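Data follows
____________
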Amino acid sequence: MANLTTILGKQVDSEDAKPFAAHHQFLIIGGGSAGITVAAQLHKKLKHPDIAIMEPSETHYYQPMWTFSGAGVIGKENSQKPMEQVIPDKTAWIRDYATAFEPERNIVITGSGAQYSYDYLIVAPGIQVDWDAIPGLAEGLGSNQICSIYSYRNLNYVKECIDNTKSGTALFTQPGTKFKCGGAPQKIMYLASDTWKKAGILNDIDVRFTTAGTVIFGVTEIAEALQPVLKRYGITTHFTHNLKEIKADEKIAVYDILKDGKPVDEKEISFDMIHVTPPMSAPEFIKKSPIADAEGWVDVDKYSLQHNRYPNIFSLGDAGSTPNAKTGAAVRKQSKVVTGNLVSLIQKGEIDPSLRYDGYGSCPLITGFNKLILAEFDYDNNMTPSFPINQAKERWSMYHMKKDLLPKMYWYGMLRGRA
């Protein structure tokens, strides 16, 4: 009978994991949705895999719920669980963070100075939220009607801002960088607008969507479906407007006006409320590492998710270089490609050419209370519907799937390797 060791409150079979060893068969960087899902799937696909997850956080968040929390629909506490509850059994948890990679030696160096070697490395640390990239944002967030659903700490303040806004100008911004959950800047705007509509004060509020982009949504069918929604709430769109500064005390937002992606002018807009989607980028320790591409993302083949130079490294989720929408639904599809290719490498010495990620992303666009347009699409922005219905139509059923069903599928399906 194998020896059992207690590691951080978990019973771990010493034949399955070597929690205090410097070497692991699979070393996963990140305990978010991507890292946990891959670990769970590997346990189902392989017998006695030695898996370690490197993650410093004590809490795991289901971030897609934060839009609902910001609108006061679901308490933010429902979006979190202790990390130790979601890390799969028989998985070593390294409570540390990666600072450097030495892929030629198969080594990861941590913040504590420890070194871990691996047979296979899965890099899934998520995306870096650059609050400091906009002067005035970090210090102004949570006051002066400046809010964001991208900050768990300030989620309740989003609802407070919505309720405190009775008239004037409400700005909702979208950055020119890549960012997670491409529809979120609009979702909270629509829920806020519906709140004001139900309160009978929407006509007194000038709702503006300011985006560095040139379209309301990248998929043509969805962009067209959103036009009646924008009209219903009287929302004006301001394209090629990239937020560059917030003058918090004066309640002024400063924008670069872009042409061909470059600033050609500047504009100031006074606000009574502003919801900010902050700029985001690859994590700093990825950017400066040898596994990054020229833009700082983990350099992987967009179909196999295998590193372009180091065949025993894979990446999925927000930190990868794949040009897809950064969504949890993408992780669900990517994870099967990564785990399938890892198993194929172990058993056959090569990846499985039939396992290809097609860029699938899903954006459940909440367009109001009890209304949702489900956008599903691939690398080429082709619609890839999962249901035999017109998904470009607002539906009550899709809203409740997003609100009530998907969280359960996440906690009890995806994170356990079942979905």
About this structure: Confidence is low (pLDDT under 50) at residues 1-20. The chain has ten helices and 23 strands. The domain at 4-127+282-359 is CATH 3.50.50.60 (FAD/NAD(P)-binding domain). The radius of gyration is 22 Å.
